[in-house]
Design brief:
Blueprint (H helix, E strand, L loop, with lengths): L3 E2 L2 E2 L6 H13 L3 H27 L2 H12 L2 H7 L4 H21 L4 H12 L9 H13 L5 H25 L3 H10 L14 H11 L2 H14 L6 H14 L16 H27 L4 H6 L2 H27 L8 H9 L5 E4 L4 H8 L3 E3 L10 H6 L5 E6 L3 H6 L5 E5 L3 E5 L2
Parallel strand pairs: 3-4, 3-5
Antiparallel strand pairs: 1-2, 5-7, 6-7
Helix pairs in contact: 1-2, 2-3, 2-4, 2-5, 3-13, 3-15, 5-6, 5-7, 6-8, 7-12, 11-13, 12-13, 13-15, 16-17
């Protein structure tokens, strides 16, 4: 129930993603492969459930295929799901929860599974997943008031509590600052209620664009068409707009949004983009049916199959162009070990306190397999490379940038280089 990271208790995020990694380690040993495996599998399953959800919602396999194509060719989705990050596990349980909610809206016997999946979602990442309760209620609220469904409601709530409560109970009992740190400092970024009404949209929209690239413009155009045509008033389309809003809006009011934080937005974006173009294309067909004379050419131009093929070819073409551009970013053209990885592996050989004069702490901890002390978090008398060497501390090594050694030279401070590569140096006392 207690997680440790870099020698200290870790309760920034819930444990679901780490549990999957631990299971992978138990089955395959500790390696890059076993670290990335749960994230990669969840990423593939998410694409599958995007297809299944769209087919369930719209009854169109073509829309499902396109929605899954959009997600699967969004640059930062690919980068993160193959990198052993929490986003992949989180997004999987988000789409699974919404898919099961849609199933339960038609057959309420699915509801207990909805709440178990929702519990896993809440245990995947701090607070962000709570927004799914709005979607669960939107799809199922009428079902709650039927007497015959009370048992399923209680069973679902019981399953949720049984899954979520134990971990949170242990953390609150063990760490006095858990609620403040987990929910407010990490979950809400110490935001005030007033800050949620102050929009800062430039950076989030820029990051969203960078994350999905060409799909960004199709998403905007789809929103525009669905609003202007009033198609968004249809229940299933409005549901997608609601989903898009509740996930995206918090990031539009935060100064601390990172590019990968917006990956959950990609789900609703994929659905809106796929259905928006589909609706627009078949609106054009309906107009042509009314205005064209009934000739042999009319039968060809207005054939439904022609518009379906056009729809698929359009998205396939954009996907190919997208893949051609981002392939060098996502997949290395040559096999190599990054300098920060290589130097961290080397640092793990030395039986000395390891300091890091840079910001790649998680990577350094993983590859050195030891506790890492970032200089930026040290007391003032050890906060920089020079100050550390001027301090009384003896048995240590430091990973630093190659150029930073000049700071020691400039102050005539003795040092010894024990390892280095093109970018980094491991330095200690002589």
């Amino acid at each position: 129930m207690h997680m440790m990271w870099n020698g200290k208790p870790y309760y920034d995020h819930p444990p679901m993603g780490f549990w999957f990694m631990a299971l992978s380690y138990r089955l395959f040993g500790i390696s890059e492969f076993s670290t990335r495996l749960p994230s990669a599998v969840a990423g593939l399953l998410t694409i599958l459930f995007v297809y299944l959800f769209a087919v369930e919602l719209f009854g169109k396999k073509t829309i499902g295929f396109v929605a899954s194509l959009i997600l699967g060719t969004s640059v930062w989705y690919l980068i993160r799901v193959r990198s052993g990050n929490l986003e992949s596990i989180f997004v999987f349980f988000y789409i699974l929860t919404v898919y099961l909610s849609l199933k339960s809206s038609k057959d309420f016997r699915w509801f207990p599974l909805v709440m178990i999946s929702f519990g896993a979602l809440v245990l995947a990442k701090t607070l962000v997943g709570v927004s799914a309760i709005v979607l669960i209620l939107f799809l199922n609220v009428r079902q709650f008031f039927k007497k015959k469904h009370i048992g399923y409601v209680l069973l679902g709530i019981g399953g949720f509590i049984a899954l979520v409560y134990p971990w949170y109970k242990v953390q609150m009992s063990t760490y006095s600052d858990f609620i403040q740190h987990h929910f407010f400092t990490v979950g809400m970024r110490d935001k005030t209620i007033a800050s949620y009404f102050k929009l800062m949209i430039d950076q989030p929209f820029f990051y969203l664009h960078m994350g999905v690239r060409k799909w960004y413009y199709i998403w905007l155009l789809s929103i525009g068409y669905l609003v202007i045509s009033l198609t968004f008033l249809k229940k299933h389309i409005f549901f997608l707009f609601l989903w898009n809003f509740i996930v995206l809006y918090p990031f539009l009011t935060s100064e601390k949004t990172e590019l990968w934080h917006l990956i959950p937005v990609y789900l609703a974006l994929s659905f809106i983009s796929s259905v928006g173009v589909y609706e627009a294309l078949f609106f054009v067909r309906s107009i042509l049916l009314k205005i064209l004379p009934h000739t042999s050419m009319f039968k060809i131009i207005t054939r439904e199959h022609l518009y379906t093929v056009t729809y698929l070819l359009f998205f396939a073409t954009v996907a190919v162009l997208q893949i051609r551009v981002f392939t060098p970013e996502v997949f290395a053209q040559t096999r190599y070990t990054p300098d920060d990885v290589a130097i961290s592996k080397l640092a793990g050989k030395y039986n000395k306190t390891l300091y890091l004069d840079d910001d790649f702490v998680p990577l350094a901890v993983y590859y050195s397999d030891t506790i890492v002390y970032p200089l930026a978090y040290q007391p003032d008398d050890k906060k920089t490379l020079v100050k550390l060497f001027q301090s009384p501390e003896k048995n240590f090594i430091v990973i630093t940038r190659n150029w930073a050694i000049n700071n020691l030279k400039k102050d005539n401070i003795p040092y010894k280089i024990v390892d280095k590569n093109n970018s980094f140096t491991i330095v200690t006392r002589p």
